[in-house]
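Bench notes, afternoon.
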Amino acid sequence: MANPVFFSGQLHPVNGSLQGKIRFEKQMFHYMLEAGDIGNVATFCQCLPSFLTAKPERVHASSFSDAVREALSDPETSLTIKTYMRCNLNASLTAKRLFIHRNSLQYRIDKFIERTAIDIRQFEEAAAVYLMMHLL
């Protein structure tokens, strides 16, 4: 009896680095499959922390999607995401710390989610972005 497993990777534009990024995600997926750490559906953000812990030499900033790298290179976005994580994903506290309206914070978070397809309101995805920020 076959037990199918599906992997959902990052969003990538078609360019010269696409093959390398897909190769990296494939390595990560195979490692997680062999380790038995995944269910029937696994996402890039779910697999990244375990893979990074086990194979840190294989994870490079160039492995992340261009959209994530571009979003996190923006100083305002980077500060917003870092503060949001330091405030334990609490939007009200983050808005107070950044001295902005809560709706402005929500707009920034929604913009990040739209650009990267990573929902940082979910713990696993926020943890993966946190790790990516430190590797970038």
